[in-house]
Amino acid sequence: MSCDQSLLDLTAAFYSVDHDILLTKLCGLPGVVLDWFRSYLSGRTFRVIFGGQTSSSLLVLCSLLQGSVPRLFILYTADLEDKVEERDVNFHAFSYDTELNVYCRRDHILPAIQRLERCIDEMATGCLQIDCSLMQRGLSCCGLV
Q1: Would the pTM count as exceeding 0.85?
Q2: Contact present, 83 and 93 (Cβ < 8 Å)
Q3: Average pLDDT taken over every residue of the chain
Q4: Residue 10, Cβ density class (10 Å: 0-12 exposed, 13-18 middle, ≥19 buried)
Q5: What b-and-e string marks burial along 113-126, b requiring 16 or more CB atoms within 10 Å of the CB?
Q6: What average pLDDT does the segment 8-36 reach?
Q7: Structural domains of the chain in order of their starting residue, each with its CATH number
Q8: pLDDT at 108 over 90
């Protein structure tokens, strides 16, 4: 048995989490809890202070702070696992670190590698994405690609 693996670092994808999509995924939560998340994600602003100067504030429509609530990111990308596994590729996520694996007999290595590469290509081009920006902004691959 052989295993081909690709490791994905989705660190930058934290900054592309769309708040509206995330809130849609949280809609099954009880009202008070959902209201708390809506409050946490809505009306956030960003500004830079440097050298005594302050930029104007910008409304933040997407992003999660890394390490703040990693389970929100896992929830946001949860349907990605189903889509990857539909392509007969194994998916293991650890917050923003993700493994894609294919197992095969030694005489089937080339088709397994091609299946893994096709899956990664589809992730990068949008076929498996939650929203168009997630992987394009945050995908960096190690391993076979």
Answers
A1: no
A2: no
A3: 75
A4: buried
A5: bebbbebbebbbee
A6: 80
A7: 1-14+65-145 (3.30.70), 19-61 (no CATH)
A8: no
